[in-house]
Design goal:
Helix 11 (181-187) packs parallel to helix 13 (218-224), helix 14 (237-251) packs parallel to helix 16 and helix 17 (293-307) packs antiparallel against helix 18. 46% of the residues lie in helices and 7% in strands. Strand 2 (66-71), helix 5 (77-85) and strand 3 (96-101) form a beta-alpha-beta unit. The chain is an alpha/beta fold and 436 residues long.
Length: 436
């Protein structure tokens, strides 16, 4: 073969691009912009192998401007200066279109060096990135660009590319493809068209090396797609997206979805992230509706960490199912968040003197701990007194959740307050048991 299959199959028009119907379909904003001929500054964001570079090249080819292509992984400040320097020459009279791949690898100063020329229209920027641009692209460039998000390509769309790849290979000589090969490769690439095309090429080369008639077998296809469908990056968006989906599935009481996302984390070899997130869920989402959940989940997590993979999947699955099927309450996190918001907003106040520490010489002379009523000396171990500072005395941070456990606690609280208000507020064990 004269060149890699991925280059031979690369689309030359938007209609040849597979997937991204939300961006490139009839009537879509991006397609209409391209057809209009006036190219704005754009940032293409999405996983690798889904068409960002291809679409950028198609747009650049039709722009009618001097085209420069740079890759953020290798581009230097001198390369950027060379692009800017061309603006004063004859070649830059109509403006320059800069296609910058992997823009996230340029530092802030390098990105800023382009800002003035993007601002006045001398340079039109088309950038692509696999990382979230709102984290990695300088804000001033973001504000002057439109972000288009590319998505993993669905298997039925990838299948079109796989079929086309085999058709191109048939130009090199007779080729047989067993039933199921195309579908297997399309399903096994995880929405990455380039990965699927590479799989076709590897399977073809293996078949050709065997000698005789070239036949790509289903067994070959299964081997080249082994574990390929897993898209995962422990430091990237995919990592946090899966963890987010896991927690939201547990919160939504869907144990099947939660198990699916747990499986994706474990299949990628990530044991620590789900362990930590499960402990968070036990406190944040189940909380006081089933207070024992956090202890059970802690035991499951400890067991998983001691066992390691693959056995760790069992106690973690137990924890996921327990949390998914347990009653839910977010009353604890709501309460602490309200309290912390109050404190951050300056909601302080002097601690009532009778609550202050009295365990030192001279404390009583300063009025510390004087007048404190020790609840255990009273019926039901309760006596009404003010605990919050004066300026916050009517604040309510915690509201009892609508579940059996918290409603039982609310009923008990109401009962002892009612009895205390009824006159049973005299100490029953005053004396040695009382504390300062």
């Amino acid at each position: 073969m004269a060149s890699p299959l991925a280059d031979r199959i690369r689309p030359h028009t938007l209609d040849e691009v597979v997937g991204q119907e939300h961006l490139l379909g009839p009537g879509s904003v991006l397609r209409r912009v391209v057809q209009g001929g006036v190219i704005p500054n754009m940032i293409f964001y999405g996983p690798s192998g889904v068409g960002k570079t291809t679409v950028a090249r198609i747009i650049a080819a039709s722009a009618g401007k001097r085209l420069h292509r740079l890759n953020g992984t290798t581009a230097s400040t001198a390369d950027l200066r060379a692009v800017v320097g061309e603006l004063d020459g004859f070649a830059g009279l109509g403006g320059v279109l800069l296609y910058l791949d992997e823009i996230q690898y340029l530092n802030k100063k390098q990105q800023q060096s382009l800002l003035e020329f993007i601002e006045d229209g001398s340079i039109t920027l088309i950038a692509s990135t696999t990382e979230n641009p709102y984290f990695y692209v300088y804000n001033a460039i973001l504000s002057r660009s439109t972000v288009f998000e590319f998505r993993p390509v669905e298997p039925d769309q990838v299948q079109r590319a796989v079929e086309r790849a085999f058709q191109i290979l048939r130009e090199d000589g007779p080729l047989e493809v067993e039933p199921g090969v195309v579908e297997t490769i399309a399903r096994g690439c995880g929405g990455d068209v380039r990965k699927a095309v590479n799989g076709v090429e590897v399977a073809y080369l293996a078949a050709a090396a065997a000698g005789g008639p070239v036949t790509v077998t289903l067994a070959d296809a299964e081997q080249v797609t082994q574990r390929s469908a897993m898209r995962y990056d422990r430091e990237g968006d995919q990592h946090y997206d899966i963890l987010s989906a896991l927690q939201k599935s547990v919160r939504g009481s869907d144990e099947n979805a939660a198990l699916h996302y747990l499986a994706r984390l474990l299949e990628a070899g990530d044991l620590l992230s789900p362990c930590r997130r499960l402990l968070v869920m036990a406190a944040e989402d189940v909380g006081l509706a089933y207070p024992q959940a956090i202890s059970i989940v802690k035991n499951c997590v400890d067991t998983a960490l001691q066992l390691g993979l693959p056995e760790a999947r069992i106690p973690l699955a137990q924890a996921v199912i327990l949390l998914s099927t347990a009653p839910k309450s977010d009353s604890a996190i709501q309460a602490i968040d309200r309290a912390m918001a109050d404190v951050k907003a300056g909601g302080y106040g002097e601690i009532p003197p009778y609550l202050q520490d009295g365990h030192y010489a001279g404390a009583q002379k300063l009025g510390r701990a004087t007048g404190y009523r020790y609840p255990h000396d009273y019926p039901n171990h309760y006596v009404r007194q003010q605990y919050l500072p004066d300026r916050l005395k009517d604040r309510v941070y915690y509201t009892f959740g609508q579940n059996k456990t918290e409603q039982a606690a609310a009923a008990y609280r109401e009962k002892i307050q009612r009895e205390e208000a009824g006159g049973a507020s005299s100490p029953q064990n005053a004396g040695p048991k009382g504390r300062p």
